Protein: Methyltransferase domain-containing protein
Amino acid sequence: MTTMKTTSPDDHYLFDSGSDLGAQQLNSLSALFDGNTRSILSPLLLPDSPHCLEIGAGNGSVARMIAEQTGGQVVAIDLDTTHLPKSLGVEPRRHDIREGVPVGPFDLIHARLVLTHLSARREIFAQLVDELAPGGWLVLADVGLAEELLVAPQESDHDVWAKYNDAAYRQIGPAAGHDYSWADQIEAAMLDAGLTDVAAEHVVPLGRGGGPWAMYHSNLSRQAEAPLLSTGLSMEDMERYRTMLADPEFRARFFSLTYTIGRKPTA
Ligand SMILES: C[S@@+](CC[C@H](N)C(=O)[O-])C[C@H]1O[C@@H](n2cnc3c(N)ncnc32)[C@H](O)[C@@H]1O
Structure:
């Protein structure tokens, strides 16, 4: 393990991956985004039996995908490994990435929706680059805000939407260390770090009322209910937010996802 600790006193992960809601959240992410992730990872040129690192592995779906596709070994780390089973080629490890990056060299390092949450993301990023093997790939997927309420079931829902987003994305998220602008900085960070073959893809999923992306956000509102209410958001607005997200008429954009790849030069 690299020794440099990058824990900030303000940082705390807002969600409980080991809980039932946490399990639903992780399963939703797999269902929503593993297809995109597969299409980003599949074309990467890797050696036979590569050594890989999956950070914030969640339920392990991406770690298993990498192990199956490459025949390699994947060290899969997460703060909470309750829903992260051992499987062929996948070694789950309970580990806080802020305590240091496992020692490589790794042919592939992947993290989806993790660095956005961590205020020490730049220091961790530098450690990840250090632990890449020559020719190794770094693949990061992070979120940006794309808040847009396209169809509101009721006129007053615009107000509820604005109040909820203010509490979630301008108060409790930043207070927990989130930076929603990081996703757009990764490409430049990779170029500055001397990585090659740098490329980025940006997707903005549409949330439909009652659909998986809207229900994912409803789940987040439940997991983070206490801090959301502590901002002054009322329970009435919280409940209306959830009802709106379940309404078949509702259409909105929540987050964008940016997938950025870069490769360590071979010499
Ligand atoms: C939003 S979830 C994403 C899960 C998975 N990467 C995916 O996209 O399906 C973030 C994951 O990162 C883990 N996590 C959060 N902070 C972490 C840390 N400091 N070190 C390791 N894992 C962390 C959480 O437990 C959770 O499983």
Observations:
- The mean pLDDT is 95.
- The longest strand covers residues 132-151.
- The pocket of S-adenosylmethionine is lined by residues 13, 17, 26, 29-30, 56, 58, 77-80, 96-98, 112-114, 117-118 (CB under 6 Å).
